[in-house]
Amino acid sequence: MSTSQKAPGGAMKETERIQAGPGPGRGPFGGGMVAQKSMTFGPSARRLVARMGPDRHRAVAVVLLAVVSVGLTVIGPRLLGLATNLIFSGVFGRQLAGTTKADAIAGLRARGDDRLADLLSGMHVVPGQGVDFTAVGHVLLLVLAVYVVAALLSWLQGFILNGVVQNTVRRMRSDVEDKLNRLPLSYFDTQPRGELLSRVTNDIDNVSQTLQQTMSQLLISLLTVVGVLTMMVSISPTLALVALLTVPVSMLLTRQIMKRSQGLFVAQWRRTGRLNAHIEESFTGHALVKVFGRQAEAEEMFARENDELFKASFGAQFVSGLIMPLMMFLGNVNYVVIAVLGGLRVASGTMSLGDVQAFIQYSRQFTQPLTQLASMANLLQSGVASAERVFELLDAEEEPAEQLEPLAVGGRGEVVFEHVSFRYVEDQPLIEDLSLVARPGQTVAIVGPTGAGKTTLVNLIMRFYDVDAGRITLDGVDIATMRRSDLRGRTGMVLQDAWLFEGTIRDNIAYGRPDASEDEILEAARTTFVDRFVHNLPNGYDTVVDEDGGSISAGERQLVTIARAFLADPALLILDEATSSVDTRTELLVQQAMAALRSDRTSFVIAHRLSTIRDADLILVMEHGDIVEQGTHEELLAADGAYAALYHSQFAQALV
Amino acid sequence: MLIRILKQHLAPYRPQLAVVVLLQFVGTMAALYLPSLNAKIIDDGVAQGDTAYITRTGAMMLGVSVVQILCSGAAVYVGARTAMGFGRDLRAALFHRVGSFSSREVSQIGAPSLITRNTNDVQQVQMLVLMTCTMMVAAPIMMVGGVLMAMREDLGLSWLLAVCVPALFLAVALIISRMVPGFRLMQRRIDSVNRILREQVTGIRVVRAFVREPLETKRFAGANEDLTAVAVTTGRWMATMFPTVMLILNVSSVAVLWFGGHLVDEGTMQIGALTAFLAYLVQILMSVMMATFMLVMVPRASVCADRMAEVLDTTSSVVHPAEPVTELAGRGELEFRGVELTYPGADAPVLRDLSFTARPGETTAIIGSTGAGKTTLVNLVPRLFDVTGGGVYVDGVDVRDIHPETLWSRIGLVPQKAFLFTGTVASNLRYGRADATDDELWRALEIAQARDFVEAMPDRLEAPITQGGTNVSGGQRQRLAIARALIRSPQIYLFDDSFSALDLATDARLRAALAPVTTTATVVIVAQRVSTIIGADQILVLEDGAVVGRGRHEELLATNPTYQEIVASQLTAEEAA
Lengths: 656, 577
Known about the structure:
Largest sheet of chain B: 6 strands, mixed
Largest interface: A-B, 189 and 183 residues
Number of strands of chain B: 12
Structural class of chain A: alpha/beta
Largest sheet of chain A: 6 strands, mixed
Number of helices of chain A: 23
Strand order of the largest sheet of chain B: 6-9-10-3-11-12
Shape of chain A: elongated
Low-confidence stretches of chain A: 1-38, 652-656
Oligomer: heterodimer
Strand order of the largest sheet of chain A: 6-9-10-3-11-12
Radius of gyration of chain B: 36 Å
Distance between the termini of chain A: 54 Å
Structural class of chain B: alpha/beta
Strand content of chain B: 5-15%
Helix content of chain B: 55-70%
Strand content of chain A: 5-15%
């Protein structure tokens, strides 16, 4: 992992975040993906198909079944044509005078009816005899059998393919899930969150939709085109050539329209993104918009963006909507030409009526899959573009794999930094040659202005990032040689932004130790004063909270996360602004509870409020990645340095 | 709900819809005429050997095709315009409605959900309208027309229609009725898979810190399996659809030939009519399939419509006054009289019997424990919520009687969660007052202790701000939010825990700079740190929604046990003494 990829976690770097705005908001159903132009359609599409690898036997079966079923379906009209011929001949025969076909033709020619004679010479007619319904019945029974078998095979094909597709999508989702667990934190820092979320949700959804909607159709349509063409050639190469002409014309038409609609779609989704952004902003900042009296401006801007979106989406839908009618028109022209040419040829006796009828049916069957392929092109393009974005995520560099043996470290939590250097961005030094010792059981407080590197320091202990130089040891063992899970399993961390997942308060506390008993959970909740506010909630511990909170206040959320760490009962405790939204009295009470928890373990505490850290065994004052002062509260006050200045700014007035 | 929304918001497009129906009618009729002409080619041309008739009829078919494409092209044009216009109007209606909401309604439904409803949900219904205009309208016309044309060709076979059409209809309806609940379930499971992934991305540090990757993987795998299971089931029904439809279609063709053949043999039917009948049957069945298939879209669209209707039917709990007061005489005196606030459904009030007066030129501070109702109290002033008892008065007038614009123009709010808008530093500051000059901006920045870092930005006042202000640190965001309120030079300042992300030195400097510019204003500060409010003229100690102490720092320190506890939690005993 190159250091240049890293970006700070807590405090954000303006230059990096500014360019990385959230992507256009897209619907969960991926309709919004149409705009994305795939960079490398071919390779990504192949890779997507290759992902069906584990199901390849079933995939081969699907193709074989499809070939047979389409083949049978395609033969159908030809056989029906035979039946038509039999009927036509019968009808003709009944009207004819004479005893043989030759007689009849001669008779016709004698009457000067050459054209009918030509027509007749192309048919199998027994004059005077009506329709041979035994033969017709046989043919129709055969057709029926063919159709039934084709339907069964087609159903089996769809059934198996469905399994393959769903399996492939399921695998892709779980691959992404596994990947998320293996990515270094720096990846999450550098990727705009909305963008990453969009990949793991919208894009995967879109891929799955595309696979479900197109795979079966694509296969059937392509095979049908080939099969139908074969049949047409076998009936009449000349007419087949006419039908074949529609292929390049329809491809040309589709391309022309797609070229135009692609740009319009891009505009549509760009506009959608902009409107989304405006709506999101207006709704999340709802209170501000109101109090600052900006409702009218917000509506005005909305109306503008909304209108732009209307224009763009109208254009896109109109142009792309023309594909269907145009293809239908093409099909109709084809139909007309074949009807006329076929009619002429039947009239001249070079072709049977049944063949023409079959041919007309084939030409219908021929243009229909072409239309389908054309209308799928957009969907397919968008699906592959999404797949590409998912592949990009799957290809991202991972945290170095660990082949380490689990270590049974049983120390009391001594943390030593030895000449540690670290920087997020190559040319911006942050922590340089930092050394410190936290003895077992000590409470180490870290204070200093924003951006001094306080959060970075504790992130290094957690190995959220690896040091560039020097080493950090826990109970004498270099943490770089420990498995991350072993290291983190001994550490409890409470972060500034209180993350709760959607679930009950009980579940959220139990997250600290999933095997904890109900009593232990309640004990943790009581100690951290969660119990107090939970009692005022309508459903108590079963109250469902979510990511965005809502039902409980910011301070209460923090208390829940503290309860979680409390329950985990770690050897090393890290509190990063863990109580910033909790009122100071509650905080004090929590602290007293934590003091008991802290007594036999090392803890690191980051806080703005100096009251929070006054009783720490060791206070580190950080500035620009350096420790500029260290000592106890009294020592530092006596030294009258940076800490003393900070302290007095907070308490000077109180001391009067 | 879906029907109501369509009815209501498609009403202005009635003429366009009529045109679409007309165009589709003509287009469909043209399409239906083709097999009839083809039958003529066979019966009158081929059978009679009349080649001139064949080419003449061919030319006519071509003409009919041209009419058809012109009609369907025009239908796509009008349809796309109508559907997109409908979507635009619906979005505007939703946006406007949400704009009228108070914070209560917004938090009830939740901003993320409101956003989805205003964008994705509209899109779903809009697509339904578009598909209806461009394809679905044609289906019933095609069906009725097809039946009529087929019967015109021959009445003897029409009983076949009476068998095939309902058979197909039933088969497709049966399959779809199996699929619809699956689709609904699938949508819910997709949501939960996405939610878990979302939570893992947002909570990645916590997951790693607690080494809960295996747990998360298990949680995800469960959701993934659930989703796959329902997707496989609905997928199977979907896979059944195509072969079933094709089978019915094909069997019908066979039946037509068999029974038709007999009719032809008896001389009651012409052979061309047989071919035409076959073509009509295929067209009718196709249209039945299409119409039924499109019904798949309806359940999703109706879920979306329900969600939109919920928004459109919600009325703001904060109602604008009928005869608003637009002139306020005073200088921004703020008074709470016996205020009580109970959230709907809650047993206990959040605030009760709360009375105090915040006078111009004075600073009123509010301190209290987590969940005591401090933020709620602040939000009552600009009517983000309305009281359920008592009243809030500005210059002696109940805020519920004041014109909102008038009220808001008096208030400078700095919310607990400093929120910035996309744009630049300057555009965010001018949110406070649109016509502020650059000099005024710099002055506000200086007071808010934000001048230094804004000057350090490459584009200074024009430095870009991303959505929500995520590209500046929490402390910087708070200072910009304070500057934004300062620009407004309001009569009433409301600082809701607005200094929490600032380090202590900055906090102190900011408060010192703030003092001279707020000498005539009413200042209300919610705070956690005693140091922030130590100089306040009046401190209210809030506990469980009620005032348990009021007075200056020294008075409270001497007499109020709760305040003493708060101070003691921040200072050691000897320091506080």
